[in-house]
Amino acid sequence: MIGISAGHRTEREAEHWLRESVLPLGLPALFACTHLVRVPYPHVAVSLAAEGSARQGEGEVVGLPVTPPELAEAAAHAAAEHAARRSGRAVLYPGVERLVGTLTVGEVTALSAIERVTRLGGPPPEAETVLETRDFVRPHWQDGVLTLVTMPVAGGRVAPFEVPDPTPCCADHT
After folding, report:
1. pLDDT tens figures, 92-132
2. pTM of the predicted protein model
């Protein structure tokens, strides 16, 4: 488990960096999460876990940048939170590439590392409940379990609570 902090201002920037810089390394069973951190300033750090990754030094993986010293505390925090399964928003994880289109909740948990699906404002959806993935599924670590939070949508279906292209806060809605 390693943490990396490059000072990304948004989760979108961190996700882009993960896809452009980490995914091409082909690390087996890659698990990458984003973490909102506050030190030394608010930004997004990432945590990475992979099976048998080639290490070049303490906490470093061949091909990845080294975190600057001023961001080391943020990187360490991200790694510790992921390792303890306390927090982290999973972006790359086993099975994520299969979570496209419309699936049942049971298929989501069978095809991916997601262990639990919850529904805002109601009981957890049943295994046969249809989930509209929107091709954007970002579960979080909650109480040691990788959990996808969903919300009800039309037709008795559910969809991930986090939407792919949210309207920024205070955006001009005209």
Report:
1. 999 999 999 999 999 999 999 999 999 999 999 999 999 99
2. 0.88
- Pairing mode of beta strands 31-37, 116-119: unpaired
Cα radius of gyration (the chain): 17
Write out the two tokens for 11. 């989760």
Only one residue has tokens 């496209």, namely: 100
> How many alpha carbons lie under 13 Å from residue 21 in its C-beta half-sphere?
17
Instruction: Match 């080294």 to its residue by tokens.
Output: 66
Q: How is residue 130 written in tokens?
A: 């249809």
Q: Are 74 and 5 in contact (CB under 8 A)?
A: yes
Pick from 45, 137, 119, 42: which is nearest to 82 by CA?
45
Distances (CA, A) of 115 to 30, 68, 108, 130, 151: 17, 34, 9, 16, 17
Q: Where are the beta strands (DSSP E) in the chain?
A: 2-8, 31-37, 43-49, 55-57, 60-61, 89-92, 102-104, 116-119, 130-132, 140-142, 145-153, 157-160
